[in-house]
Write a structure and sequence with these properties.
It contains eleven helices and 36 strands. The strands form nine sheets. The protein has an eight-stranded mixed β-sheet, with no helix packed on it. Strands 16-17-18-20-19 form a five-stranded mixed β-sheet. Strands 9-10-15-12 form a four-stranded antiparallel β-sheet, with no helix packed on it. α3 packs across α5, α5 runs antiparallel to α6 and α9 crosses α10. The radius of gyration is 29 Å and the shape is elongated.
Length: 658
């Protein structure tokens, strides 16, 4: 865990400067698949009521997994050591997580055997000789069993590739399944300082995992043992293995910051003559991605070890630290999982409620790879697709309420529309609001440095963004991150003479968020074929803008470069109505249960409002002397209607549609 005093120091310094496919399936590889930050670590707030609070008595410092695994089944056996440090006044019961299907045959604590463990759900509780705060321990658990399988979040899965004729077994622990295959503590803020994973596998197979392959030992029965070691802090769910008849294919990345040195990109791929000819170019494309993200964010966080891939039959990918497990090597999936090495692995979400700091930024990394490597049009295609997906439904927040973070609700945590696409889309909106890429990428860099090897929440990212940019982002996060829905616009504009453009903008919303305060781009197209983009800030549901221009405007385009996501209901060109107190703008149009009228020249005198159908039949009447009026239209049938307002002298009417 990042030292609290260091974090406070950096914050004070800043304030001064105020995944679903396999190689045999059609590719759809966009997906890999308010928590209060702890005042001190590891005394964080508990929300996992299926976990024993006794887990809070110690901090994990090291995992050592020495396991036997096979490409032919999901059986697991071996010994796991959990090294730790006591953080409560006394530790007299050692707790860890392991599902009941896994049988414990031996347990030792600091070298002494114990047989009096108790199982409570998936918690294993062992009374041990008491230790005091600050003392260290080594718990050793020897066990075996066949974990349950099936589904994306299965823990351990075995499958067969009919295309490449290989059996393969792999792990996937996110978010709650690490305990299904090894004894552990599934608490996000408690990263282990390092990990070793030794994997004994059948003859003729290879096993991949995180860190460096330090040795391959031949066991007495002739089986190989692959000995992987990583010195970097790691969250429990990022520990992994994959085993198959693999061949190894490696490339190297050379980020600018390494000044000529390189990073190993180590790939375990199916040992089949057709595999590399099909996927070699995709693997080679990883090196420029690493170089790009190292320039944009921070030097690849695990550059002293490696990056790599283990190919399996997983429907998508999983960002296992330094060695992603994936089912294909498509550009989008590879870029997304690589982005996780920064956002998810180096800096990990402190709670699953804030999975945005993992998935939203990994998806935005995918966008940046498209934009910077494949070109602007490719990036635009990706972002527009994400924005359209966000707006395919009216509600949903990126932040996940704690009550929804449960083991039977994993797809809410990893909701493709919200955690991934809306998560990335609001990062794009933030970049547009900041309107300075040097500042925007400095925010990402600072966030990576400040929370490296640690965990963070959405509010932690907000604090960094505010400190670096010098902006108050409370409203931004309230509406985009915690809020729901998206804005809809009705635009009215007209020329005032030849040198002023008047724009009325009416914003309505699709869900519970009442207003999206936001900067929106308007492309003004002039009568001589030229154009100009102006940025206008919407700080109310109805706004009026006067824009100086040097020539007549013939049309307006909203958000021409797709920075923000909104729907434009209508763009209406009208005649100047500066002296007409009955003139109004409406929104939304089309409408559903209500429609708002905004009187642009209200002077306090009463105005009569009349709603009729197209035959002239009067449906409702009301009077107002306010600048804003609302009509309840829930009882109206779908169709077209006429709204008319008059003060007795002037009148104005609009056609509206339900």
């Amino acid at each position: 865990m990042k030292n609290l005093f260091l974090a406070l120091f950096i914050f004070s310094r800043l304030s001064l400067f105020a995944q679903w496919n396999s190689p045999e399936q059609p590719e759809n590889d966009r997906y890999c698949r308010h928590y209060t930050r702890p005042e001190t670590h590891p005394k964080f707030a508990w929300r996992s009521d299926w976990q024993s609070p006794l887990l809070n008595r110690y901090d994990v410092t090291f995992y050592f997994l020495d396991l036997e695994v096979s490409n032919m089944n999901i059986n697991i056996s071996g010994t796991v050591q959990i090294h730790g440090k006591v953080v409560e006044p006394v530790l007299d019961t050692f707790a860890f997580e392991l599902i009941n299907q896994m049988n414990i045959s031996q347990f030792t604590f600091n070298g002494f055997p114990y047989t009096n463990w108790v199982r409570q759900g998936d918690n294993v509780l062992v009374p041990v000789a008491p230790l005091s705060q600050g003392q260290t321990f080594v718990a050793s658990i020897t066990y075996s069993g066949t974990p349950p399988t099936g589904g994306f979040f299965a823990g351990v899965t075995n499958a067969y590739s009919y295309v490449f004729q290989k059996n393969v077994t792999w792990s996937l622990s996110e978010p709650f399944a690490a305990k299904s295959w090894f004894p552990c503590k599934q608490v996000l803020p408690d990263k282990a300082d390092s990990v070793w994973v030794y994997l004994t596998t059948p003859v003729g197979t290879k096993a991949g995992s995180q860190g460096l392959l330090t040795n391959i030992t031949t066991m007495p029965d002739g089986r190989p043992r692959y000995e992987w070691k990583s010195k970097y802090p790691i969250a429990h769910y990022l520990i992994s293995f994959a085993v198959a008849d693999y061949q190894e294919y490696n490339v190297y990345a050379k980020p600018t910051a390494l000044q000529g040195d390189s990073i190993l990109v180590q790939n375990y791929v199916y040992n089949h003559p057709n595999f590399l000819p099909q996927y070699q170019n995709s693997i080679n494309a990883v090196a420029p991605m690493i170089e790009l993200f190292s320039d944009l964010y921070l030097l690849y966080p695990f550059h002293e070890e490696k990056y790599g891939h283990c190919v399996t039959q997983l429907g998508g990918g999983m960002e296992h630290q330094t060695m992603t497990t994936l089912g294909s090597l498509g550009f989008d999936l590879v870029a997304h999982e690589l982005g996780h090495m920064w956002f998810g692995d180096n800096v990990t979400c402190a709670s699953w409620s804030d999975v945005w700091v993992n998935e939203g930024f990994a998806t935005y990394s995918n966008y940046l790879a498209r934009e910077k490597i494949n070109g602007w049009n490719s990036g635009q295609s990706f972002m527009v697709s994400a924005q359209n997906n966000v707006m395919s439904q009216p509600g949903g927040s990126v932040y996940i309420p704690e009550s929804e973070v449960t083991p039977d609700n994993e797809w809410r945590i990893f909701d493709g529309r919200l955690s991934y696409d809306k998560g990335s889309a609001i990062i794009h909106v933030l970049r547009h609001e900041i309107n300075d890429d040097s500042v925007f990428f400095k925010i990402l860099n600072t966030y990576q440095m400040l929370f490296a090897d640690s965990t963070a929440t959405g509010n932690d990212f907000r604090a960094v963004a505010e400190a670096v940019s010098g902006r108050n982002l409370e409203q931004f996060f309230s509406q985009w991150y915690y809020g729901q829905g998206y804005p809809r616009y009705d635009i009215e504009w007209y020329m005032v003479g030849n040198d002023k453009l008047h724009i009325n903008t009416t914003q309505s919303v699709t869900s519970t968020t009442p207003l999206f305060e936001m900067t929106l781009d308007y492309k003004l197209n002039f009568n001589d074929g030229s154009s100009q983009v102006v940025r206008l800030f919407q700080n109310a549901n109805f706004c009026q803008f006067d824009v100086p221009v040097s020539k007549p405007v013939t049309s307006i385009t909203i958000d021409p470069d797709n920075w923000t996501f909104e729907k434009v209901n209508s763009i209406v060109v009208s005649l100047p109505q500066q002296d007409n107190p009955a003139h109004f703008s409406v929104g939304p149009n089309p409408f559903s249960d209500q429609i708002n009228l905004y009187f642009t020249n209200a002077d306090g005198r009463p105005v009569s409002i009349q709603l009729t159908d197209l035959s002239g039949r009067i449906i409702s009447k009301q009077q107002t002397n306010e600048s804003t009026s609302r009509l309840n239209t829930s009882s109206l049938a779908n169709g077209t209607y006429i709204l008319k307002a008059t003060d007795g002298k002037f009148e104005f009417s609009r056609r509206i549609v339900k």
